[in-house]
Amino acid sequence: MRDFMPVQCAPERFVAYRYEPDYLRGQSQYITNWKHAYAPSRIQYVNSGLILDGGNVIMCGNKVIMTEKVFQENPSLLPMELIHRLDEAFQAETVIIPWDRNEPYGHADGMVRYIGDGKVLLTNYCDFDTDLRKKMLDALQPHFEVVELHYEVEKPHKWNWAYINFLLADRKLFLPRLNTPEDEQACAQIGTALGIPREHIELVDITGILRHGGGLNCISWNGLQEIRHLRLITSEIGSTESETTRTRHRKLISPMMEDAFTPEVLKMVIENDLGHEIEPHFWKAFDEAFAECWNNEIGLGNWVYDGQIERSIYEQMREKRFLVDYGYIEKLCKIALEFIEQIPGALLN
Question: Where exactly are the structural domains of the chain?
Fold first, then answer.
C-alpha cells in the first residue's frame, strides 16, 4: 500500500506521484490508483508529476532519502533537474543513496530508516556486503548520524533484511518473526534505537508477505508522522508521573533561576507549555533564527513591531527548508517572549 499512496512530508502536506514502476510493466492490474483506495478530499496534497515509488521515499525531517533508481524511473529529466523537482515537491533536501541491486524494486525502506534526532538506522550490510556498506555510509554520513544493525548468528536468515522494514504504529513497534536468534537481537537493537521498551515490541509472522518480497512497512500506510511524535510517545510509555508531579516539575523552571536566558532553559519552557518535546534539528534552526532576530534585527533598545520576530523567524525557517505553519512559530515565540519578559534585566523598557 505504501508504494502507491501519497507521502506525508508535513502535518498538512502530502505529495502524490505517478506510480508506474518498471517491475510492474505488463501487469497493469497490479497498478493501483491511490484515489480509488482513499478519498483525496481527506488530505491536502500536491501532485509532483514524477514517477516515484512510496517504498523509495524516506522522510527525515528537512531531508528525504531515495535510492538512485529514481533517475532510471524519470529518464526524461537531467539528474540535477530531477533533484530540484524532488526538493520542491517534498520541501526537503534530497539525499541519494546507492541502489542495492540484489533488490529489484529499488526501495530505500529495506535499507535505511529515519529514527529521529538527525539519525538513521542502516540495515546489517556490515554482515554481508562491506562494499555497499561503505557506499551507504559515504552517502549518508554527510547528512546524518548512522546507527548500524548487526546480528551475531552462525547462519544468517535470508529474510533478516526485513527487520529494517519495521512498522511503528499505535505506540508499538512491529517486527517480522523469523523464529531465529536474530528476532531478539533485532528487538533489542531497533528498540534501543527508537527508545521503545521490549514490552511494546511485537513480533509478527508475515511469512507469506516475505515470500513475495514485501515487509511490514511495505504493506502499510501511516496517516500521521510517526517520527515527529516518537519522543512524546516513548516518554509516555515509560512515564508513571501523575499530572500533579508534572505540574510540580514545570514550576521548577523559573525566570529567576541562574542562566534562565539560555537556549536550553527556553527549550524546556516551550516544551513544558506545548506538552511535547521539540526535535533537536528543528530546535537548532529555531534557536538560530531567534538569536539572529534578537541580536541583529531588534538590537538593544530598538522598537519591536507587532509580528516582527515571528515573521523573521518564519522566513528563516522556510529558507532552511522547514515546512512549518506560521501559527506554530507564533506560538513558540509567544511562550518564549512571555518567559523572557519575566527575567530580570533581559528586556529594557
Answer: 109-231, 240-340
Q: What is the pLDDT of residue 305?
A: 58
Model confidence pLDDT, tens digit, residues 264-291: 888 888 888 887 778 888 888 899 998 8
The pLDDT value recorded for residue 82 is 97
| DSSP tag of 346 | T
Name residue, grid cell 510493466: 25
For residue 15, what pLDDT is reported?
95
Q: Is the pLDDT of residue 237 over 50?
A: no
What are the C-alpha distances in Å from 155 to residues 150, 159, 160, 165, 187?
13, 12, 11, 21, 18
**How many angstroms from the chain centroid is the CA of residue 103?**
24
- Tens of pLDDT, residue by residue over 27-45, are 988 898 888 877 777 788 9
What DSSP letter does each residue of 158-193 carry, written as one string? TTGGGGGG-EEETTEEEEE--SSTHHHHHHHHHHHH
Measured CA to CA, the distance from residue 181 to residue 192 in angstroms comes to: 17
Q: How far apart are CA 274 and CA 90, in angstroms?
A: 26
pTM of the model: 0.66
CATH code for residues 109-231? 3.75.10.10
Q: Alpha-carbon distance 54 to 16, whole Å?
A: 9
Cell representation of residue 69: 533508481
Q: Give the phi and the psi of residue 146 in degrees, each rounded to 5.
A: -105, 125
The runs of H, that is alpha helices, within 91-121 are none
**What span, in angstroms and rounded, lies between the C-alpha atoms of 299 and 303?**
9
